[in-house]
Design goal:
The chain is α/β, with parallel strands linked by helices and 540 residues long. It is 59% helix and 10% strand. Strand 8 and strand 9 form a beta hairpin. The longest helix is centred in the last third of the chain and has 30 residues. It is elongated, with a radius of gyration of 34 Å. The N and C termini lie far apart (71 Å). About 12% of the residues have low confidence.
Length: 540
C-alpha cells in the first residue's frame, strides 16, 4: 500500500475529531439534530484549520444511510464515497481552476438533477473567492433558491474578496487559528500511534512554526520523520536545522547578553546562528516576538490567554522580564522594527542586524522612576526652605530668637542650593536652545517621522528637568503624535544622552502662526542633509 502523509492519514472523519474548532462543530451538530440546516454555508479562516475536512464531515452526516446524523457510520457506500473522494452526490470543485462563468453555467444545469443515491446533492467549492465577478453573478439566483435536495458549502481564506450579495445568501462560520497547546496535543496523539520518539521542546517548536495551521504542523512532523527515519528519534537540533528557526534557549541567551551588556558575546552568538544557516529575517522576527512575550509577561504575569507557550517557558519569561522596564522594552522594540525596515532596503541585511544588537547591549536603562523621585524630594526641600525663611522673618518674639541657629543656617543653605539649581536650569535651557538642531539631527537617525514633527516646535522653557517644547496653534497633530508614549520616550532619550542629564519633555500649543523659530533654518538644513544622505538623494 502506498505511503500516506500524516495530514491525510490523520484527517478528521467526525465532528468530535475536529481540532480547535468546537464552536463550528457544535453549531453544525445542533443544526443537524434540530433539522435547521441552511441551504448554503460559507467556511472562512486561515489555511490548514479544517474547513474542507469539516465540509466533508457535514456531507457524510447528511448523506449517511443512517442520516442525517451527527455520527456518520463511516461504513456505508455514501460515507465511503465521501472519504475516498468518489461520491457522485458530493461534488468538490476547485474555485481557482473553475472560476469562469462557463463553469458556473454548467453547475447551474447540473443542479436541476436529483442525487443518485444520497438524500442530498452537495457542492463543495474550495477557494471560492477565486471566482470571477461574472461567475458570482451567475450563481446568485441558484444560490438563493436552490432545489430542496441541494446544499452548497463554500470554503475561503479571503472572505473579504467575496461579494456582499453572496455573503448575504450564506450562513457564515469563521474558523480560528488553532492554539499551540491544541496542536501539541494532536501531535502527541500522532507520535504515540506512529511510535515516534519526540521531545516536548520539539513539539512546541513545530507548533510555533506552523502559525496556527494543524495541516502545516502535521506536514512538518512528516518531513522530520522522513529526515530521521532510522531510529525514529527527532531532536530539537533536527528541527532547528531543517526549519531555520531559533530555539527558545537561544532567545533567552541572546536577551541575557543584552541585560549583561555583552556586545562581544552577542556578536559571537549571532555568528553561530548565521553559520547554522539561519535567515536574518527569521532571527529578527523571532527576537521581536520574544520581546513581545516579555512585555506581555511583565504586564499580565503571563496570562495563558495572551501567551500561547508551555508553562516552563512562561515562568522563564516572567523572570527575565524583571530585568527590563516597560520603557526599556518599548525602545528595544522600536530599534528592532526600524532594523527590519532598514534590512528591506539593503542587499546585506547582516550588517544592520549586527549594529542593532550591539546597540541594544549599549542601551542605558531608563531612569524615569528616579527622575520622578528627585522631583518629589526637590519640591519637599523647597517647601521646607521657604517655610524656615518665612518663620525667621515674621516671628519677632523672644522665643523665636532662642531657637537654634542651625535651623536658620540650614534654611539659608537650602535656599542657596535651590537658587543654584534654578540657575543651572537656565544655563541648561540656553544650551538646549543652542543645540536644538543637533537634537533634531540625532533624532532623525532613529526615526525620521518623529524628527520631522519635532522640528516644527521650539524649546521654550526648562524647569525641574522638564523641557517644554512649544508649537504653533495649528500644529495639534504634531503635538498629539509626539505625545504618544514611544515617541516621547525616544525624544527624552536623545535629550538625556546629548546633555548627560535625565530630562523629560512636554509639549504645548502656545505659539502664534507667524512667530519665527530660532535656528529653524539650521535645523531644517541638518534634517534635510540627513534625509538626503540616508536615501542617497539629490536636491531638485
Amino acid at each position: 500500500m502506498a505511503y500516506q502523509v500524516f495530514a491525510l492519514r490523520w484527517r478528521p472523519q467526525t465532528f468530535d475529531q475536529i481540532v480547535g474548532q468546537d464552536h463550528v462543530a457544535n453549531l453544525l451538530k445542533n443544526s443537524i439534530e434540530n433539522g435547521r440546516l441552511a441551504h448554503a454555508y460559507l467556511f472562512s479562516g486561515p489555511r490548514g484549520v479544517g474547513k474542507t475536512s469539516c465540509a466533508r464531515i457535514l456531507s457524510k452526516s447528511l448523506n449517511c444511510q443512517k442520516g442525517p446524523t451527527v455520527t456518520p457510520c463511516q461504513k456505508c457506500s455514501s460515507c465511503q464515497g465521501v472519504t475516498q473522494c468518489r461520491s457522485l452526490d458530493v461534488i468538490e470543485i476547485d474555485g481557482a481552476s473553475n472560476r469562469g462563468i462557463d463553469e458556473i453555467r454548467a453547475l447551474r444545469e447540473s443542479v436541476k438533477f436529483a442525487s443518485s443515491g444520497g438524500k442530498f446533492k452537495i457542492y463543495i467549492i474550495d477557494e471560492v473567492h477565486m471566482l470571477t465577478n461574472e461567475a458570482f453573478n451567475a450563481l446568485l439566483k441558484t444560490l438563493e433558491e436552490p432545489p430542496e435536495f441541494v446544499k452548497f458549502i463554500f470554503a475561503t481564506t479571503q472572505v473579504n474578496r467575496i461579494p456582499a450579495t453572496i455573503l448575504s445568501r450564506c450562513q457564515r462560520l469563521d474558523f480560528h487559528r488553532i492554539q499551540v497547546s491544541d496542536i501539541i496535543n494532536q501531535l502527541k496523539k500522532i507520535i504515540r500511534e506512529e511510535k515516534i520518539s519526540l521531545d516536548d521542546e520539539v513539539l512546541f517548536t513545530i507548533a510555533r512554526v506552523s502559525e496556527g495551521s494543524l495541516r502545516d504542523a502535521e506536514s512538518i512532523l512528516d518531513q522530520l520523520y522522513s529526515f530521521n527515519r532510522r531510529d525514529k528519534n527527532i531532536s530539537i537540533s533536527d528541527v532547528s536545522s531543517l526549519l531555520g528557526v531559533l530555539e527558545q534557549d537561544v532567545l533567552f541567551e541572546l536577551t541575557d547578553k543584552i541585560v549583561n551588556k555583552d556586545a562581544c558575546g552577542i556578536l559571537n552568538l549571532l555568528n553561530i546562528m548565521l553559520r547554522q544557516g539561519k535567515d536574518t529575517k527569521v532571527i529578527l522576527s523571532n527576537i521581536i516576538e520574544h520581546f513581545r512575550n516579555l512585555i506581555v509577561a511583565k504586564i499580565s504575569q503571563a496570562d495563558s490567554e495572551l501567551i500561547d507557550l508551555p508553562e516552563e517557558i512562561i515562568k522563564n519569561l516572567i523572570l527575565q522580564s524583571q530585568h527590563f522596564s516597560l520603557e526599556d522594552i518599548f525602545l528595544i522594540f522600536n530599534i528592532l522594527v526600524n532594523t527590519q525596515e532598514t534590512c528591506k532596503r539593503m542587499n546585506d541585511s547582516v550588517i544592520p542586524l549586527e549594529i542593532s544588537l550591539v546597540r541594544l547591549t549599549q542601551q542605558k536603562k531608563t531612569g524615569h522612576a528616579q527622575v520622578n523621585a528627585e522631583v518629589v524630594v526637590k519640591q519637599a526641600n523647597i517647601s521646607k526652605a521657604v517655610g524656615v525663611k518665612q518663620k525667621a522673618e515674621t516671628d519677632h518674639q523672644p522665643a523665636a530668637v532662642k531657637k537654634p541657629q542651625a535651623n536658620k543656617d540650614d534654611g539659608a543653605a537650602e535656599i542657596k542650593s535651590l537658587c543654584k539649581e534654578v540657575k543651572n536650569d537656565h544655563t541648561q535651557e540656553s544650551s538646549v536652545k543652542q543645540r536644538w538642531a543637533r537634537v533634531i539631527e540625532d533624532l532623525g537617525k532613529l526615526k525620521i517621522s518623529v524628527a520631522s514633527f519635532l522640528s516644527e516646535g521650539i524649546p521654550s522653557k526648562l524647569e525641574n528637568s522638564v523641557l517644554t517644547v512649544s508649537f504653533p496653534k495649528g500644529c495639534s497633530l504634531h503635538k498629539e503624535t509626539l505625545e504618544k508614549k514611544e515617541n516621547r520616550l525616544l525624544v527624552e532619550k536623545i535629550l538625556s544622552d546629548l546633555f548627560s542629564k535625565n530630562l523629560r519633555v512636554k509639549f504645548d500649543l502656545c505659539l502664534s502662526e507667524s512667530k519665527k523659530k530660532p535656528d529653524r533654518d539650521k535645523a531644517d538644513d541638518s534634517f534635510l542633509r540627513s534625509a538626503m544622505s540616508m536615501f542617497n538623494a539629490r536636491l531638485v
